[in-house]
Design brief:
The protein is α+β, with helices and mostly antiparallel strands. Helix 2 crosses helix 3 and helix 7 packs parallel to helix 8.
Amino acid sequence: MTYEQNRPIWMRISEMEERDRPREKLDHKGPESLSDLELIMLLVSSGSGDRRVADVSHDLMELLDRNEEPTLAQLCSIRGLGKAKSSLVLAALELGRRRVRKYGFGTTISCPGDIYREVRHFSTRTQEQFVVLVLNGAHEVLNTFVATVGLVNKTLVHPREVFSDAIARRATAIAIAHNHPSGSLDPSDDDVNVTKRLKASGDILGIKVLDHLIFTDKGYFSFLEHGIL
């Protein structure tokens, strides 16, 4: 099977087919069927002035990609996202963190498919997102964050950004992944060079790079499975 692609939303919710609206889609297919943007649209609920809910939600999604713990002031700086909605977003983020802490660590990474399940929601992004999964000794996910946004090359993807959180958390391993908006799963020369550079850096730091995935909404390419790592 292939995963249903969630495409960027450029129209008002009232202009969409009823079955494609986030609330109706959640009702019929469950929350897991919604893209990150659609989930955020449900939180934001409505636009403001000349800004559609999709526009406000897109700006919020980009902020959360860069900073998983934004302040109220940072949220309020998004045009169309007032204090009330910003407070709702902060409350939702904090509740999610508390529920994760209550039930212990996240997913255990034991194969490339486990990594893909953790990052595949980034496949709808129109720019490449370089995602890092920080792992403990049992390969349980301690944190997931976007290290860089843009083309994957040795200039943009620096070991400093990739390993900083792992060092702070005293992690023993990381898994890395990035989406290809083009839909191709073939690694570029830059992809290979960056992977080798990060693996060498991890060896020096004592933090193992388990794997590097290139992924789309259709599937993934594992550097480990193809003998490149």
